[in-house]
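Problem 3 from the worked examples.
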Amino acid sequence: MPTFFLIWFGQMVSTIGSYMTVFALTIWIWQLTNSATALTLVGFFSQLPRIFVTPVAGIIVDRVNRKYLMILGDVMAGVCTIAIALLHLQGSLQIWHLYVAVAIYSVFGQLQTLAYSTSIALMVPKRNYTRAESMVAAVNYGSAIISPALAGRLYPVIGLQGIISIDLITFIVALSTLLLAKIPQPTFTMAESSETVVQKLTFGLRYIVAKPNLVAMVIAFSLFAMANDIGKALYSPMILARSGGNAEVLGNVTAAAGIGGVLGGILLSIWGGFPRRIHGMLLGFMGTGLFKTAMGVGQSALIWMGAHFFASLNIPLFYSSSNAIWYSKVPPELQGRVLGADQTIGLIIASGATLMAGPLADNVFEPAMETGGKLAGVFGGLFGSGAGSGIALLYTLTAIWMFLVGLGGYAFRTLREVEVRLPDYDQS
């Protein structure tokens, strides 16, 4: 696993820098607009292009050197970040510039993400799939500890320009590790080269549809993701609205989530997960939903920090368990297209969720939870009627939904027995 560790380290450093920039830009947008919709639109424009590029990306990842694709992703991320820095330096940065930048980055970022995820099965022994995925999850949550803390303290001192400069340095570190790494490549067969364009684009979807157990996996994760993505889009606006725009509170809550995610990843990498990984996925859904419900109901920084810590503790469990099932069931030379099809479905859901979240919060739930509003009489005693109470109600409803998806998954044998009914790719 030396190659995996090298790339993992570079991505960890780069992600810290990227999260610092995202945190700084979140504060910048909120100070400028005080709008949940403006924040959620950044997420929408980062998701929308991925829907169209992912089926093609799956084909590319199964054909082109994955190392080069990962390098290209880092280079384009650096270009987009430099463009934002130059616009800000000139005093001409506007929100729509960010929409364009995240859209461009998302195209190349999806290529990089897919190339990275499909390389894990070739760099890591099958028995360590869950451990490797838990380390990948720990990168994101480790960054969530360090980045908000650093950005929250440095932003008032060095501003957005200084944060972006740090981000660019981390890109160089990630690029260096990729240049040093030797990433294994899958085998390309001549039979695949004779496929038509339509066959190539739909191969992953057809592969999934032909296997009912994988269809069950997609449906379960999609139902969870719909609620999770709405909640994710509302998280920052909810904390900022209910804390009076306090960036330090947002940073502390995000850092608590990061600690939970890292601890969850570390524990999972030591433990290795359930022998039946589907239990990790479904119980992870339930644990995440349960504690996010507490976070939505909570109205103080301490409660938010505690709830988000325990919610995030479960996230590596369901992500790592789910991905390990896919890596075990799908041959490495097909994973680009098959995982690409699965991710396309997820991206469609994520785009719809983020697009709905802001308007629902700003135009429906927030007015309904104001004093005298339609929902204030029912839920006001639990959520209050101040700024952010409507967002908190919506966030809580999505969290309950997550818990129910995990619980309900056990009722369906096709999903519950996915690992029993569907053989591993090297045993079929």
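Problem 4, a separate protein:
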Amino acid sequence: MTAPPLAGTVDVPSAPDPDADTPTAPDALRRAAGRVLLRNWTGASTVPSRGLYPHQWSWDSAFIAIGLRHLSVVRAQRELESLLAAQWGDGRLPHIVFNRAVPLDAYFPSPDFWRSSRAGRAAGAPARVETSGIVQPPVHALAAWLVHRADPEVSRRRGFLRRLYPRLVNWHRYLTRRRDLGGHGLASVLHPWEPGMDNSPCWDGPLRRVEPAAAGSFQRADLDHGAAADRPTDLDYGRYVRLATDYRDHGYLDADTPHAFVVEDPGVNALLIASEHALAEIATALGQDPTDHRTRAETLTATLVRRLWDPAAGMFRCHDVIAGRSVPERGVSGLLPLVLPGLPSDVATALMRTMTGEHFGLGAAVRLVPSYALTGNAFDPSRYWRGPAWFNVNWLLERGLRTHGRHPLAAELRRAALETAASSRFAEYVDPYTGEARGTRDFGWTAALTLDLLATDRRAGASDASREAVR
């Protein structure tokens, strides 16, 4: 299927004046979050951070669009349109779309490392924009559906869903066909950056097979903006570079690359399923038959449970496809299937029990769910995805709790996230025990998801008031 071209530049209305009135506390937080997104806007998309992440990131843009819809529906649409305009011919959405105006040494790996327009030609990489060659979790269709629902009339007038739908279908087709490297019906990730949880302890075992690139063969830029104790180690980076180099040197062709890292991740597949449900809604809105999307969501859910569910652990496990065994580490991606409406009730109940139990401690040891089990040998409350709490993960889990009827716990998690966003100045991630800010500040998806949680809080409050009135 060939997707129609996306629209060009559009006139985007500004967000409301942040100093227009004297705010209440939620209003103050709303305006502060809006200022972050306005400052990080480049004219076509939103950078996660002006310093540390100066380009467009794939799943960041999806989460940012979800928040932007509360400021400007057109800008939220443009966020997704600009990302999907960089889609490859084989259907993949690259995890980075590079801004030509940013100096090459501002971020590593830079466009001259990935060489997408040349090295990725056989896979259909775009010729006019440089991107990375790997992907990130497929939350985009869910984001598109939520953006559409914010103002269906504007969406229809701009042809938003009509133009994005075939591209989203191709993106999912890429994951379900070209990335089913285990042959069991689930999408595989080929690099630790693809599931978005870059240095999770879940990858330590599979990465031991990877010979790291020589230390002097690359120059990290992330340490110019963040403390080394908060970031992945040089050994981690050497292995990341080796995997990306090998993929690039084989033309980014999934079937032709001798992969040293192939993992079935429950978080990636859960978001694929959630987005298949969203595609069914999009198809219906466009007057098309949603049956294939609903059937695929059901089939993928059954496969996810059959293949990755560990009843003894009370959570899903990553699966090392090359080694043919489950990964023993308890990463938070094993809780993310809670977002799925079609999850068996006993599985959903067990996930919520694990989330609030000793391993993740929600509501007891911590107020936000950590990225890795508190009880794990590799737990570190400061280092990137090895323990800190992330706002996008907690947004997904809050949504999952509401999906499965745990409204009081969802409200508690929502309050904790909002309070932490405010106190940390929209930090990239935080210490799960103390809420102390880690990573960069004024982070794009933290600000965006703050806006969405504020809107959810208002709707939940109205629902609670309605229930009280009925009583």
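Solution to problem 4. The chain has one domain: 32-460. The domain at 32-460 is CATH 1.50.10.10 (Glycosyltransferase).
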